[in-house]
Amino acid sequence: MVNKNEVQAPPAQASEVIFQPVQTGRVSGAIVRQAESAIISGRLQVGERLPPERELAEQSGVSRVTVRDALRVLEAKGLIRIRAGAKGGAFVTTPPPTMLREGLANLLILSDVTAMDVTEVRLALEVEAVRLACTRATDDDIDELFDICARRDAAIESGDYDIRLSAEFHVRLAAASHNPAFALVVEALYWPMLVSLAEAKEGSQDYGIGPDRNEHRDIVTAISSRDEGQAVEIMQHHLKRQTQRLNRRLEDLKGRS
């Protein structure tokens, strides 16, 4: 199967001038904005090669050093991939999912977003994801989800339970919806989810071993039976219990202050 990011498409036609002369502001930033606009509008497509540095410099009315600065920024944003060699150049590419995950995680963790905010978003996203999984999950999806449940059970029995197993389960469940947008967004919530899980654990004496111990497995069982109503109900209870634990944690902190 051909990787669309590796397709060496020809450069844009000479008659199509994408980059315009830059006159004000930080010139490399202006070039970046023009490239972003061209990619978003579809004038530059994934796999397409940007014009050579010299041509970009001529079109933009700047030095090749400035063009290189702009290309480095575009590469850091995951919008292009720079390859060396006779057939190299700057190629439009799709930003990797890790870039979205890390960017969103940093934004949420460093902002005023609370663990409760994250859980409320998860409630909205994951209930619909589990609904889709009931009709779209494959046998491999179900097997992998059961495997995570088995590893979680073993960790609880040995006293080595780690909340990362819970986060892994929810990310994998979103992937089982076979909606790439759900999968990307829930994966991007991975680190904020860990923070909220850690806070919920502080608000519960029986976290992971109480009434929710078997809920992950029960959700997968319902999905494997294509029982949408049951799967949705369990997921709602599962995440609402998370909000209850966070509320107890908040009340406890208020009582100490």
**Nearest-angstrom radius of gyration?**
24 Å
Low-confidence stretches are 1-15
- The global form is elongated
Which percent band covers the strand fraction? under 5%
Mean pLDDT equals: 85
> How many helices does DSSP assign?
11
Can you tell me about this structure?
By secondary structure, the protein is mainly alpha-helical. The chain is built from eleven helices and two strands. The protein has helices spanning 27-41, 53-60, 64-76, 97-110, 115-136, 139-158, 163-175, 180-188, 190-202, 215-224, 228-256; strands at residues 80-83, 89-92. A hairpin with a 5-residue loop joins strand 1 and strand 2. Helix 6 (139-158) packs antiparallel against helix 7 (163-175) and helix 7 packs across helix 9. It is elongated and about 65 Å long. It starts with 26 loop residues before the first helix and ends with a helix. The model is unreliable at 1-15 (pLDDT under 50).
Keywords:
2 strands; elongated; mainly alpha; 257 residues; two-stranded antiparallel sheet
Topology:
Blueprint (H helix, E strand, L loop, with lengths): L26 H15 L11 H8 L3 H13 L3 E4 L5 E4 L4 H14 L4 H22 L2 H20 L4 H13 L4 H9 L1 H13 L12 H10 L3 H29 L1
Antiparallel strand pairs: 1-2
Helix pairs in contact: 1-3, 2-3, 4-8, 4-9, 5-7, 5-9, 5-10, 5-11, 6-7, 6-10, 7-8, 7-9, 9-11, 10-11
